[in-house]
Design goal:
Length: 288
């Protein structure tokens, strides 16, 4: 189990999971219902199964690429710790489990489950033909607040959609930073990424632009939350300020000629940003 958790980088669930919790909270308050803890557990399981399927499939599809890259050659499949067949079976199990749990939630989540899986699994192929792969990854994680809201209400709304847009640009921006490490390798192997296509310096500028769009989308979603659900202005502003401050901080850590702090910028800073942002808004919503 430890090997599989390592393969799928289970700790990285911290990026999208808080936004799923926020989407669930918004859905519960919008519908006027108390927290349904069984439904909440189903949402958490969907997050775990979908992400596990996506990551194990990515490792399976990229096994030859990972083996050729010195940075990733130590991963579980190229190093022989987990066989490709086992990784594929693990993917299929998680896909099936995800669909089963969506069926227990409601019909719209069940009907849309193949679409969600197509997005999160399809991402693994994108760097073979487009530098927009970072945005596809962001799209996959953006489903977290939208899906959680749908699980509670059974309908779409602008608030979770705008939150999802914010997540899309946020993830795409920090994934560009992470991809800086492999820009030379990707270019040599004919793989697509924004760093390999535009160069490291321009990639960092694009990352900053995407994070500016993220801040705008989150601002608009908070405005609607204040207007529709009575969130106090101070909580909304505090959550946004912390999140944006951490975005600025991660960009201060990484330079085109100095990637020594990429992991700090990628994992630690973004993990803290998502948790603190969600906690501030959830507390503010229940104190409203």
């Amino acid at each position: 189990m430890k090997r599989y958790l390592s393969m799928i980088k289970f700790s990285h669930t911290i990026f999208a999971l808080p936004f799923a919790i926020l989407g669930f909270t918004l859905g519960s308050l919008s519908s006027g219902d108390t927290i349904d803890w069984i439904l909440f557990a189903y949402v958490l399981l969907c997050m775990i199964f979908a992400r596990s399927a996506a990551m194990s499939f990515n490792r399976y599809i990229d096994r030859d690429i990972d083996e050729a890259n010195p940075r990733t050659a130590v991963r579980e499949i190229p190093s022989g710790v987990i066989s490709p067949r086992s990784a594929l079976l693990f993917t299929l199990f998680n896909c099936l489990a995800f669909i089963v749990v969506t069926a227990l939630i409601n019909s719209i989540c069940f009907y849309l489950s193949p679409v969600a899986l197509a997005v999160v699994l399809g991402y693994s192929y994108t760097k073979r033909f487009t530098f927009l792969c970072h945005l596809i990854l962001g799209l996959g994680l953006s489903l977290a607040p939208v899906g959680a809201y749908l699980a509670v209400t059974g309908q779409f709304d602008w608030i979770p959609v705008l939150l999802g847009v914010g997540v899309l640009f946020w993830v795409a921006g920090f994934d560009i930073i992470y991809a800086l490490q492999d820009s030379d390798f990707d270019k040599e192997k004919g793989l697509f990424s924004i760093p390999s296509f535009f160069g490291k310096s321009k990639a960092l500028i694009i990352s900053r632009f995407l994070h500016a769009l993220c801040a705008l989308a989150l601002s608009l979603s908070i405005k609607l939350i204040i207007e529709q659900l009575g969130l106090q202005y101070g909580f909304g502003l505090a959550g946004l300020a912390v999140f944006c401050t951490l975005l600025l901080y991660q960009h201060s850590l990484v330079k085109a000629n100095d990637l020594s702090k990429v992991n700090l910028a990628f994992f630690t800073t973004n993990g803290i940003a998502s948790i603190v942002f969600t906690c501030i808004l959830v507390v503010g919503l229940y104190l409203a």
